[in-house]
Amino acid sequence: MMKKIFFTLTIFLIMGFNSYALTPMESIKQPTENIISILKADKYQTLTPELREEQWGEIWEVVKNSFEFTIISRLSVGKYWSSFSLEEKKEFQDVFAKLLANTYIDKVQENFKNQEVKYIDEKISDKKAEVMVHVALADNDVPIIYRMLDNNGWLIYDVRIEGMSMIKNYRSQFDEFLFKKSPKELIEALDSKINQLREERKK
Amino acid sequence: MKSFFYFLLLFSFFIFSSSSFGEQIMDASMDIEDSFFEEIESDYNDFSPGFSDEELLDDDLFEDSFVKSSQSPTLVKKDYDPIEPVNRAIFNFNDKTYIYVFTPIGKGYEKVTPRFARTGIRNFFSNLHSPLRVVNSLLQGKIKNAGKETGKFFVNTFLGFLGFIDSASSIEGLNPSEEDLGQTLGKWGIGNGPYLVLPFIGPSTLRDTIGMTGEFYINPVYYARDFNSKEKLIRDGTEALNSLPNSMELYKTLKDSALDPYTAAKNAYIQIRDEKVKN
User: Fold this and answer.
1) I need a surface site. Which of A95, B63, B131, B246 has the fewest CB within 10 A?
2) How many Å separate Cα B265 from the centre of its chain?
3) What percent of chain A shows pLDDT beyond 70?
4) Residues on chain B touching A13 (C-beta within 8 angstroms)
């Protein structure tokens, strides 16, 4: 009897950790449901600043494993990527991931009101895939498309909201910036943006 | 007891392997150089067979990631913006207005109205503009969409208390895409034209501004009853006020996440409009 239970448990563990066996849609659904359960957790129902930070950290742990930040960085910078030194590439990737996390996790924390997420469709072609979900806001369903690639597991490299690609949006900004300024200045500008947001949050 | 030991052993193995697995991905992707990207790019190039919805998977993100730095950099402005200095000035004016006037008003309004009232008012105005969307669907030759829109209008007007309740939203098949005159002009082959930032209203293009103005003349609702100017002010003011909380929240998100909010707003507007014209 005991043996049987442990056997089943082990099977579950293997299945749980072999995340690369998940389909693209499952790779979206699992972390999404995780985040929702963190947002709904009893201990976070009244958020003190400390609890807020703790919750933020928990969400970040889930989010960071779902995104392919290297490729996100590279695609956002586009043609200027090769003018970054290896050091700058790493720094940029860190600071850009931080900016994305800072703005969007904050928004989710502020605005989550038990919205329903519907998993609509997935399309797979060899190493790339798209997963479409609908988030039911008060007014209407907002369509979100996650673009993913298979790098030992399905990871997100672009998010399209209402037909707007986040990567393209950032690229339009970085293009203009890097036409006049250096990669180093871009990293500094993003860094000061993060600090500015942090200051605002404390107020 | 023995099996418990095995279990622990297995457990720690998986914990260990999964954590090092994550690092491996990061290391690998830090190292992956052009070969990996070229592979993705070539994937992208022949990336259609077997899919019904090719457009969804169409992806030009990888196109210009491979320009080497030896090539002299040129700034390719994709979003046509010939009067950028003027636009930027209006954008900054709007920014101040949004932060110091509209946001406080929106917050105050949010406080004194329950959520269902705001949703109801929004639904009411949306339903009021439904005939206009029918006209635009027809102008674009979307007969089926016009039918859906008409059905939705009747269901919501008669079963949804003059549109306050969006009863049609739960009915399968009564979910038309929302068409406006700017999209109609786009469908007819008219491009965005210069990007414009309108005072108070925000991002637009020449085409969409003309479309917005034109809607005053083709909206059937405006012909149904002769509003005097005071009534018009109340009608349009209520609609604008009711949409403030959401619009201001959206604006703040955009501003917070952007390196250059002006460029971000411009690109977002044009991307979303292009997508709407396409569909």
Assistant:
1) B63
2) 11
3) 88
4) 10-11, 14
Rounded to two decimals, the ipTM of the complex is 0.83
Cα A138 to the chain's mean position, in Å? Answer: 23
Name every residue whose Cβ is closer than 8 Å to that of residue B219 and which is 6 or more positions away in sequence. B129, B131, B132, B135
Contact B47 A13 (CB under 8 A): no
A47 SS3 class: coil
Q: How many domains does chain A have?
A: 1
Q: Name the pTM for this structure.
A: 0.79
Separation between Cα atoms, residue A167 and residue B107, nearest integer Å: 31
Q: How confident is the model over B238-242, as a mean pLDDT?
A: 93
Check whether A192 has a pLDDT greater than 90: yes
In angstroms, how far is CA B209 from the centroid of its own chain?
17
Q: Report d(CA A175, CA B73) in Å as an integer.
A: 10
Residues of A within 8 A of B72 (CB-CB) are none
For residue A61, the enclosing domain spans 2-201
Summary mean pLDDT of chain A: 87
3 state SS for B26-67: HHHHHHCCHHHHHHHHHHHHCCCCCCCCHHHHCCCCCHHHCC
CATH number at residue A91: 3.10.450.710
Q: What angle do CA B183, B190, B48 make, to 5 degrees?
A: 75
Among the listed residues A135, A142, A138, the one whose alpha carbon sits nearest the alpha carbon of residue A162:
A142
Q: Which one of A103, A177, A182 makes the best mutation probe of the B interface by having the most chain B beta carbons within 10 Å?
A: A103
In a mutagenesis test of the B interface, which of A7, A19, A72, A82 is the best target, namely the one with the most B β-carbons within 10 Å? A82
